[in-house]
Amino acid sequence: MDVAIKKTAFHVDVESCIGCSRCVEACPMKILSVQDGLCSMVKSYMCLECGTCRVICPQHAISINATDAQEIVAVHTGDGSRQTRIVFTPILERLVEIVSTEFNTVQQFNYKGTDISELNDIDFEDQRCYVRCYSAEKLEKCSVCSMKFLGEMSSEVLVLVPGIEYDIPLFMMDWTEFFDSVFFICDFFPTDDPVRNQRYLSEYLYEPLEDMYYTHGEIPGLKSSPIYWVRAIASPYMITGYVDKQPRENVAKLVNCAVDYLYAWIKLWRKAEPRKPNSPHMKLVHKRRKIIHELFHDNDPGIGSINKIIGEEKGKTAIEVLMP
After folding, report:
1. Which residues form the domain of 187?
2. Going by fewer Cβ within 10 Å, which terminus of the chain is more open, N or C?
3. Sign of CA dihedral 137, 139, 141, 145
4. 315 CB contacts (<8 Å, ≥6 apart)?
5. Which of helix, strand or coil describes residue 235?
6. How much is the pLDDT for 302?
């Protein structure tokens, strides 16, 4: 199968560029670098064409041939016919890169006594899908999932679950992308009642997320989750909603939100101190974590889609790996 990959027309005026690296720091996908004193793009296929680098450049040295149409690639099948597929935003690749660097993760091929190696690389309709689990210090697990549905929809999920001795929130980012929009969820799911425990509210939710919530909460299309049980267990700082992919700045804003929330969670992880698992506080934390897990396990609408791709037997294992 021959797939035509989208490439962004990225140009730097060599006479104007001063190699200041502002574009490198601003790029939401981190695909720019300064080489030999000039800005260059190292992974053009990951470019969102959002124009952030062009706007931030003090010398106006960058130009991008951004496309107004959605990102479509031509797929030549074995029988000579021709199909089209969307080029999805590689959000999970970006977040996993951060997680791998910050946590020094190690991939696991066995989860709670069950072999999960078959989930590492799944072929569905000639598209690469996977459910993977990683271990790291202070973490019970880091779970990632990437599913593509007939070239028309992509679902990518990152879940970070702290170890049993830590009471910091659960982290989840869910990115479901369609032809013209993205359904997005990003949150710190509290593992203690923030109303009962004011310290928890202040230290784990208010302090790391208050300012970012007002920054990212203004993205057009965001609104409260339509799923009542998700609203019931979410933090006051959950960012969610359906966001149009045009203008392209919208996608860049979502990427920035996911990255900012992830780094905020990493700061909590770094400072986290172990607590006695059998203390009254941690017993409440473990009880709430169990309830959150059961709610997702019993109600998440994505379970049916995963079972459709890999079958119910593998799907059962995948869900256990993925659920927070």
Report:
1. 88-322
2. N
3. negative
4. 303, 306, 307, 309
5. coil
6. 75
Separation CA 191–CA 285 (nearest Å): 5
Same-domain pairing of 42 and 158 = no
Taking phi first (over 0 means left), then psi (-120 to 50 degrees means alpha), and beta for anything else, what does residue 51 get?
left
What SS3 state is found at 45?
helix
Q: Is residue 71 part of a domain?
A: no
CA diameter of the chain = 65
Residue holding tokens 């006594």?
A: 113
- Does one domain contain both 58 and 185? no
Stretches where the chain sits below pLDDT 70 are 1-8, 65-85, 125, 150-151
Two tokens, residue 83: 């199909």
**Domain count for the chain:** 2
| Contacts (Cβ under 8 Å, ≥6 apart) of 153 | 176, 177, 178
Orientation angle between helical segments 280-299 and 302-322, nearest 10 degrees: 150
Domain contains 317? yes
Q: Among residues 174, 192, 172, 190, which one has the least CA distance to residue 182? A: 174
Question: b/e per residue, 207-239, with b = 16+ CB within 10 A?
Answer: ebbeebbeebeebeebeebeeeebeebbbebbb
Nearest C-alpha neighbor of 255 from the set 29, 4, 69? 29
**Contact criterion met (CB below 8 Å) for 169 and 190:** yes
pTM to 2 decimals?
A: 0.85
Which residue type does 186 have?
C
Does the residue 76 lie in any domain? no
CA distance 202 to 74: 50
Per-residue model confidence (pLDDT) at position 189: 98
With tokens 């992830």, the residue in question is: 262
